[in-house]
Structure formats: structure tokens, C-alpha cells
Design a protein that fits this description.
Order of helices and strands of chain B: EEEHEEHEHHHHHEHEHEEHHHEEH
Number of strands of chain A: 0
Shape of chain A: elongated
Largest sheet of chain A: none
Helix content of chain A: 55-70%
Oligomer: heterodimer
Distance between the termini of chain B: 34 Å
Number of strands of chain B: 12
Number of helices of chain A: 12
CATH architecture of one domain in chain A: Orthogonal Bundle
Shape of chain B: globular
Helix content of chain B: 25-40%
Strand content of chain B: 15-25%
Radius of gyration of chain B: 21 Å
Chain lengths: 342, 327
């Protein structure tokens, strides 16, 4: 990640989330307030202390937290901006592909098979005479849908199981750890070839299901570790000492402090899931025609690479850029959420 | 008696062996009374407090014996959800390091208000108003604005006062303060202790003050219980202990306080190291470090003798308390 020149934007924008930096302006008021002869009864008739000179008046400093600090970092990070622009563009064309591609991806003309670019068909034609541009645009929909759905599934399943295992520990934890070990031992491609070859459905759901099945152990390990770390914090014990229930401790005190690593890993994983869908489709066990997917197109075009390289390069290029964008986003988010890098 | 701990025994089962952290501790606190529990690190004072609160990590911790009577009920016989309802409402705890005891991602208002949401079922808006009131109560200036701030935006003393406010929120009958001022600098220490003492008087709460700082105790406590190797070795009203300790360990502690009138002399230190709790010495646990130790101390565990000849109730777990008291 490129170094960011330090720009003092707002007052007191000194970085450092948990540090004492933010406390400094207030520290002076401590002595004043305590020295005043105090009767707690009058204290309820506030405000009397704030009239002191130097006591805090309406603070110009916005409350800072891990998230607001991270957001400020991200907004200035070119990697984040670039990847976000690409992702927004991808999401828009997956939702409304017809805005930039007027034709249908399934309308093909064999007479034009393997022809190069022509007016109105900038990317040329593939082996079946279909318009490569249209198919590449429509392929984004599958990729984004598979990536987003699989990531959501993995993140929800993995973090719930991992968090429960980390929080309650004991038998439940050992059991889950062994189960994740088993899933880690399944080779992804081999598993995909075996499991998906028996599926006949032509929708994206079997692929998503397969990715979730193999992907959740990764997130669950991260979530488990993050929960165990967060759980050892004194404020968790303090909350317990003040009568908070398990669910409240887990949801309100641990989860917000443990969610950052899960977000980071999930974002990076999104890119790899898109690549995995293309891989599976290439191998013929993911999506099948007439679905439109970059993997299918790459697979179909690869025998003709010497005659019609454009039919291979465009969907491959789109796939590479998409995966890169999500991985860059994940990277930027990781940097922003890591206070040690500030 | 508000809280009575009787012969409490706690051990931790670790990979290396069984750590006997608490070996038959008994103490009691009345409403409106302050008991200071004194001892070095590892003497079992915090573990006892955690057992009373019910926040001991189990496993590895295990309560192997004794009872904890709170308002006449044995806490160890209650169900977990009953104990949870007591925590915060009837008994509360203040921790040593207020920064790490406050959740960094929630505003102090949210955390203070949580007490009312959890125990009283208040709406968030009412809870917020209560939070402001509490912050006023512990004298945090501009409470209305600051209630929206995060813990790291407060100074150390203020954070500890917020912790005190959280503990006091529901006006519990008992407060356990586990080294509440250790992380603060000396001037702020005094302010926080004064605040705690004053609020305790006002609400007539029982206060168990855990500390290793004899200086903090003198002004605030009514009684002192000194712990060593998981036992109470001496308990007495605060002034008696300062005047004439009845246990050599207490004596050693008092002599190791730096004093202005002893300037230039070498500071006394109790020789030796605290015992390994996996292998507590036979007989009196203190005998390897004790200047008065004799053969009896190496073989017989001293019971908690009643110290006679004073007008107050005192106890000492030393075979030779008479020699210590008068020597």
C-alpha cells in the first residue's frame, strides 16, 4: 500500500485509535472539577463546572472510534478508491447489463464464428458466433452474484459457528475445531469435481452451496480466534460483573470488537470465490451453458486460442480485473482496520 | 452481616498441577462497613473477590469448598441466572484498569445506560438520561456532552470514576473494588478514594477494598484482613493493625512502607519470595520468610487465633502472636 502523506484535516485528527491522544485536552479539567468543594446533591443541579475557563465547551472534535478512523483512512487511500469504483461499476452492470450492452448474450450467428471486432461488436465473436462483448458484460452478473452470495453465506455460517465455539469453548470448541480440520483437508478442485458432477441443476445455487461448504471453516477459525482474543479483555469481565447475560456480552461487547478480521478475510475471499466459480465452470462442473459465465466462455474459447485469442482474452481480463478489485478492497480494509499501521 | 465468606477454597487445575489459590478464606462485611483485603500479588485476594462475584473462570478455576453468604443466602447454591440478576443490582465490582474495563467501541453513555437497560428494562432514551445523571454524580464535568464520547477520550481518573458510576448505578448493597487506584497517579488516587468513601457512606453500602497499598487503606477502611498464600493471616480494626500488628507478615508489610522520618536508611523488605501456590510450604505458609519461625511453624498449620488483651476483635494466624504483638 502506498504511503499516505499525513494531512491534518480536522482538528485533532492525529491517528491512533486506542491511544491517549484524544484524552489530552480533557485531562486538564480533571483537577479543576475535583478541587471544587463537592456535595453530590448539588451536582445534580448541573451545569456548574463547565463555566470554568478551559473546561470543555462544545467539542470540535468528533467522537472517534475504530470505524470512523478506518473510514477516514480509506477515503484517502487510492487503492480503496480505485477498487471501489471498479466494484461499483461491476455491481451496476450486473444489475442492469442492458445499459451498456444492447444485444442478447444468447443470440449467436455461427456464420460469424471467431471473427474479430466489427462495428457494434468491439470484442468480436466467439467460436459459436456470439458477441464476446455482450457475453462478457452479462458474465459479470454471475460472477458478482456467486461471489456475493457465497461470501455472505460463508461469513454468516462461519462467524456464527466460530464465535459460539470461541465463546463457550470446551467440548463444543474441540468438536468444531476437528470438523474444520476435516473440511480443510478436502482439496477444493477435487471436491468440486466430485460433488458438483452429480448435480444436474443449472442454477448458480449448487456452486454457491459448494463454496459455502468448503469456505466456512476459514472464516470460522478467524472468528473463533477473534472472539477468544476479545473475550480476554477486561471489559468483558467487567460487563459480566455488572450482570450482563451471555448473549448480551457476545453480541454487544465481543462481536463489535471481533468483527474486523472477519470483514477483511471475507472481502479478500470474495475475489477468490469468483475465481473459484470460473475455475469450476471451466472444468465443466460449475455453471453450464446456456448460463453465461466467464469461466464457461474461457473454457469454450481455449481450444481456439491461436485462431481467435480475443474470445479468450476479454472474459479472462474481466475475471482478472474483478478478482483483483475485490482483493485490493480487502487489502485496503485490512490496512485501515489495523491500528498498528497508523 | 451483609457478606460472609466462610472457609472458601478455590483451586486452578493447570497442566503443571493444581494451584491452590484460596485455602480457607473467611471474612465478613457489614452494611456501611469498609473491609480492606491486603496482600501481595498472588495471595488470592482477587480470586476470592471473583468467586464472590461469580465471575471466576471455571474451568480452570474450581470452588472446592466453603460458602459465600450474601444477605443470608449462600451464593454458591444459587443458579447462574439468579446470580446474574444479583450482579450489578445487588453487588458490583470496580476493576483496576478502567481503560481496559470499558468497551472501546461503545460510548460511555451506552455503557452506563446498559445497566438500566439490562436490569431495569428502561428505554434507551431514559437510560441515557440516567447515564448523564450518574456522570454528574461522580463529578464528570459537562456530562451532557461527554456522555456521547468514547472511553479513550477520558483521562485515567475520569475513566475510573465512570467505572465507579457504573458500579453505583443501581445502588448495590455491596461493592468490591479490586485495586481501584493502582493504575492512577497519586493525586488522582486520593480523589478517587475520597469519592468512593463518600458515596459508600451516602448509600450505606458495604465495601470490600482489595489493595496491596497500605497507604490507601489507612484513611478509608474500618477493618483490614491481610492475606498470604490464599489464607487470612490477620484481621483487625484498621488502627490496631497500624499500632501493633499481631502477625509477622503484617509487621513486615508495615515496616516496608517508605517513611519520611527514616530518610537515608535502607528500606526494609520481607526476605524471600511469595510461595509457589502449587507447592505451599507445610505448616505455616509464611515460615520460610518469618523471623519468628520455630519448629512448631514448620509442622503445624496455625489456626486463626483470637487475639486477646485488646478491646476489639482481632484474629491472627500465628502461633506466636503474643510475641509479635509485644515484641
Amino acid at each position: 500500500m502506498p504511503e499516505q502523506p499525513f494531512q491534518p484535516e480536522g482538528a485533532g485528527a492525529v491517528a491512533g485509535s486506542g491511544g491517549t491522544g484524544g484524552a489530552m485536552p480533557w485531562a486538564t479539567s480533571e483537577a479543576e472539577t475535583l478541587e471544587s468543594p463537592l456535595s453530590p446533591r448539588t451536582a445534580t443541579l448541573k451545569p456548574s463546572a463547565p463555566e470554568d475557563p478551559g473546561a470543555p465547551s462544545a467539542s470540535p472534535e468528533r467522537p472517534r472510534s475504530l470505524w470512523s478512523d478506518a473510514w477516514r483512512d480509506l477515503r484517502r487511500n487510492p487503492v480503496f478508491i480505485l477498487s471501489t469504483l471498479i466494484i461499483v461499476f461491476l455491481v451496476v452492470i450486473s444489475l442492469w447489463p442492458s445499459t451498456i450492452a444492447s444485444g442478447s448474450p444468447l443470440k449467436c450467428d455461427l456464420a460469424k464464428a471467431q471473427q474479430g471486432s466489427a462495428p457494434g461488436h468491439p470484442f468480436g465473436y466467439d467460436g459459436q458466433g456470439c458477441d464476446v462483448y455482450t457475453r462478457t458484460v452479462y458474465g459479470a452478473r454471475t460472477s458478482v452474484a456467486v461471489g456475493v452470495c457465497a461470501t455472505l453465506g460463508v461469513a454468516v455460517l462461519g462467524s456464527v459457528l466460530g464465535a459460539l465455539a470461541g465463546f463457550f469453548g470446551g467440548l463444543w470448541d474441540s468438536l468444531l475445531s476437528r470438523v474444520t480440520d476435516v473440511f480443510f483437508a478436502i482439496p477444493v478442485i477435487l471436491g468440486g469435481l466430485v460433488l458438483l458432477s452429480v448435480v444436474t441443476s443449472n442454477s448458480i445455487w449448487p456452486v454457491i452451496g459448494f463454496i459455502v461448504l468448503l469456505g466456512w471453516p476459514q472464516i470460522s477459525r478467524i472468528a473463533r480466534g477473534a472472539v477468544i482474543t476479545a473475550q480476554q479483555n477486561d471489559y468483558v469481565q467487567a460487563a459480566r460483573a455488572l450482570g450482563a447475560s451471555n448473549s448480551r456480552i457476545l453480541l454487544r461487547h465481543i462481536a463489535p470488537n471481533a468483527v474486523a478480521p472477519v470483514i477483511v478475510v471475507a472481502t479478500i475471499a470474495l475475489g477468490t470465490y469468483i475465481a473459484l466459480e470460473a475455475t469450476l465452470s471451466y472444468l465443466g462442473v460449475g455453471l453450464k451453458p446456456p448460463s453465461v459465465s466467464w469461466g464457461i466462455d474461457i473454457s469454450a474459447a481455449s481450444p481456439y486460442i491461436r485462431n481467435a485469442p480475443h474470445a479468450l482474452l476479454w472474459p479472462s481480463g474481466a475475471l482478472a480485473v474483478t478478482v483483483l478489485a475485490f482483493i485490493m478492497l480487502g487489502d485496503a480494509v485490512r490496512d485501515a482496520l489495523d491500528p498498528k499501521l497508523r | 452481616m451483609l457478606l460472609e465468606v466462610r472457609d472458601l477454597q478455590v483451586e486452578f487445575r493447570t497442566r503443571d498441577g493444581v494451584v491452590k489459590a484460596v485455602n480457607g478464606v473467611s471474612y465478613g462485611v457489614d452494611a456501611g462497613e469498609t473491609l480492606a483485603v491486603l496482600g501481595e500479588s498472588g495471595s488470592g485476594k482477587s480470586v476470592t473477590a471473583q468467586a464472590v462475584m461469580g465471575i471466576l473462570d471455571m474451568p480452570p478455576g474450581r470452588i472446592t469448598g466453603g460458602e459465600i453468604l450474601f444477605q443470608g443466602r449462600d451464593l454458591l447454591k444459587l443458579r447462574e441466572d439468579e446470580r446474574r440478576r444479583l450482579r450489578g443490582a445487588e453487588m458490583a465490582m470496580i476493576f483496576q484498569d478502567a481503560l481496559s474495563s470499558l468497551n472501546p467501541v461503545l460510548t460511555v453513555g451506552d455503557q452506563l445506560g446498559e445497566m438500566f437497560v439490562v436490569h431495569r428494562g428502561m428505554s434507551r432514551k431514559d437510560a441515557r438520561a440516567k447515564a448523564v445523571e450518574l456522570m454528574d454524580r461522580v463529578r464528570i464535568p459537562a456530562a451532557k456532552e461527554r456522555v456521547k464520547q468514547y472511553p479513550h477520550q477520558f483521562s485515567g481518573g475520569m475513566r475510573q470514576r465512570i467505572m465507579i458510576a457504573m458500579a453505583l448505578a443501581l445502588e448495590p448493597a455491596l461493592i468490591i473494588a479490586d485495586e481501584p487506584t493502582t493504575a492512577l497517579d497519586v493525586t488522582v488516587q486520593a480523589q478517587v478514594m475520597d469519592l468512593l468513601a463518600e458515596l459508600r457512606r451516602e448509600y450505606r453500602m458495604g465495601l470490600v477494598l482489595i489493595t496491596h497499598d497500605l497507604g490507601v487503606v489507612a484513611d478509608v477502611a474500618d477493618r483490614i484482613a491481610v492475606m498470604y498464600a490464599g489464607r487470612i493471616v490477620e484481621s483487625a480494626p484498621v488502627h490496631d493493625i497500624y499500632k501493633a500488628p499481631a502477625h509477622p507478615y503484617t509487621k513486615g508489610l508495615l515496616e516496608s512502607i517508605p517513611r519520611l522520618d527514616h530518610k537515608g536508611r535502607e528500606l526494609y523488605a520481607i526476605k524471600g519470595l511469595p510461595p509457589n501456590l502449587m507447592n505451599i510450604p507445610r505448616g505455616c505458609a509464611f515460615h520460610p520468610r518469618c523471623p519468628l519461625a520455630q519448629d512448631l511453624c514448620r509442622t503445624d498449620v496455625p489456626p486463626l487465633y483470637e487475639v486477646t488483651g485488646t478491646d476489639t476483635t482481632r484474629h491472627s494466624a500465628c502461633h506466636f502472636w503474643r510475641e509479635c504483638l509485644h515484641g
